[in-house]
Amino acid sequence: TSRCSSWVYKRERNHRSDCQHPLDHQKSKRVPENHLFLTLYLSMDPYMRCRMNEDTGKNTNFTKGDFVTSFYWPWQTKVILDGNILEKVDPQLVDGHLSYFLEAIGMPGLTYLIGVQEKSHITAGSNQTMVVSGAAGACGSLAGQIGHLLGCSKVVGICGTPEKCLFLTSELGFDAAINYKEGNVAEQLHKLCPAGVDVYLNNVGGDISDTVISQMNQNSHIILCGQISQYNKDVPYPPLHPAIEAIQKERNITRERFLVLNYKDKFEFGILQLSQWFKEGKLKIKETRINGLENMGAAFQSMMTGGNIGKQIVYLNTA
Ligand SMILES: NC(=O)c1ccc[n+]([C@@H]2O[C@H](COP(=O)([O-])OP(=O)(O)OC[C@H]3O[C@@H](n4cnc5c(N)ncnc54)[C@H](OP(=O)(O)O)[C@@H]3O)[C@@H](O)[C@H]2O)c1
């Protein structure tokens, strides 16, 4: 099983040890410099489910009190890590809300800032309609806001409860939201998007995606970010149903798989942009917190089954 996670943590003091990799503290290969860190927040992400299917630098000098983040973090309250896998973060960028480095001012925010910029072909003023599935989650809740900020005229979210729908429209500025567990999604979507869908931010795959793709316009674009409805299957990125694939081809709909980690050169600028929007009040950030390392499993399960609004975070320690 995976014991990896993104995290925000604080360096406690210099420490040398024989640990080389956070995943295997039993290995005894020396590395030049390790550091002891206190875990503050642990991130719950759907990609962890995919890592569970199989076991699967630059060295920075840290000083006491530095805050850092990384993808490779064990579920522990304190940990000794090789500095090569760490990124230093500046608390001023999040006005001291350190957990935001795991959400809007971190990987989920970057996913859709870069995803929309690179793949959506949005042109401000051209009256485009965007649909976001998984819209009330960590990535989705930011995606719709970023869609508006980058020039989309209409943003419709699809998510799993009426409370989430209300949150999207009343708090985050989505133009409309559909609860996919109630009523006919295709009919509701058609009413809300009579001119069709120009950009689809796909977080869930499965039937919801098939319904959206069926209503996409000629030369429109899918950002294939994730397919959480398929993650408990053996193939987390299964091919489209042949009938839907035929629609995609006929209408020349682009559908390339998007992976934020392929755009590391854009991270630095992206974080500054997201931080600026957050400080200007243009990007609203929501998280669902659970306390304590002992509740990591419950937090993961809850996130995978819709218990979260915004980012699912596990809180461990105060800085
Ligand atoms: N490509 C990349 O670089 C990249 C980066 C980050 C994340 N992702 C992907 O983006 C997606 C969202 O990630 P996240 O971190 O923002 O998670 P999240 O949306 O905060 O949490 C997962 C949400 O998925 C929904 N869900 C669960 N099962 C579902 C199903 N069968 N059908 C429809 N919705 C379902 C639930 O909300 P409801 O109540 O609405 O069901 C749940 O709250 C995931 O697929 C993830 O793998 C991709």
UniProtKB/TrEMBL annotation:
EC number annotated for this UniProt entry: 1.3.1.48
Domain Alcohol dehydrogenase-like C-terminal: 140-238
GO BP: any one term: prostaglandin metabolic process
Coiled coil ranges: none
Organism superkingdom: Eukaryota
Signal peptide segment: none
Pfam families, sorted: ADH_zinc_N
InterPro entries, per database record: ADH-like_C, GroES-like_sf, MDR_fam, NAD(P)-bd_dom_sf
Keyword entries, A-Z: NADP, Oxidoreductase
Any one GO molecular function term: 15-oxoprostaglandin 13-reductase [NAD(P)+] activity
TM annotation in the entry: none
Protein name per its UniProtKB record: 15-oxoprostaglandin 13-reductase
